[in-house]
Amino acid sequence: MVNFFNISEIYQFAIKIEENGEKFYRKVAWKTKDKKVKDLFIFLADEEVRHKRIFEENLKKIEKYEPSESYPGEYFAYLRAYAEGLIFTKNIEKELEKEDILEAIDFGIRRELDSIMYYLEMKDFIPETQELEIDKIIKEERSHFIKLSNLKKQILEGR
User: Across all residues in the chain, what is the average pLDDT?
Assistant: First the structure.
């Protein structure tokens, strides 16, 4: 039997992504002594909280939306598998324990890229009226990717 889920579940996955991101960024900020790294990771954690609020608001005002697909449940099955792999990875707790700041930054970079991919994919399942909000979040996630990449470059150049 094919597992179906609705648009509200897509937003619930997005909320979980943001919660995990906040948890990761706050943990790294708490561990590091480097002020520049700490400030960036606190900023990123706060951004995840803001994104979560946006998704929660969108969740409150959703309308039923059915995307076109090759067979019933195709896209929802794909998004569920993608989100579950992204959100509930077995290694997330291990990644949260990283002591090396470059490994933590690399993990943050991967999370930002994964989030961008998820939000790009979820746009096919949401009402057009909500796409602008998702586009704004994608733009912000891209800026987070750039900030993390620049921080990594600065650290590597300083070694």
Answer: 79
